Known about the structure:
The protein is mainly beta. It has strands at residues 7-10, 16-18, 23-24, 26-28, 37-43, 46-60, 66-69, 89-90, 104-118, 121-138.
Amino acid sequence: MTLLGPDVASPRASGRYTVGVPMWMWVNQSATTYGPNTASATAGGVTVTATAKVSRIVWAMGDGSSVTCNGPGTPYTSSQDMAQSPTCGHLYAKTSARAQSGRFPVTATSTWTIDWQGGGQADQLLEVRQTTVQVAVGEVQVVR
C-alpha cells in the first residue's frame, strides 16, 4: 500500500499571497495522497485487509503558527472574494521578506489512519507523511 504526503493544491509555490488576506488551503484527493486506500495480502492461508485514509492535516505555516484541518479543505473560487475558508485557512500577519529565500516553508503533515483486520484480529495504525512548499507572502500599501 502506497501512502504519500499531501498533494497540496493551495497554497501554490508559484503563487503570491498577501498579509491580511485569507489564504485557503486544500489538497487534491487520490487513493495514495488522501484515501481511502485499500489493500489485501495473503500468507500462510491468512488474509489481512487494510484500509487507510487521512484523518487530519496539520499545516505548519512557516511564520510560527500551525493550522489543523480535519478534511481536505475547500477549493477557493473567485466568487468568495476575501472571505475566510469555511474549512481550512490561515491569515498571515507578516511578510516572508525576512525568511530564507524570501519565502515561508509551508509543511502539510497528513496523519493516515489505517484500519486492518485478518486472521481473527483487528487493529488500527497511524502513519505520518509530509509535503513542503515555499510560499511568498507580500504586503500591499496604499500611497496617496
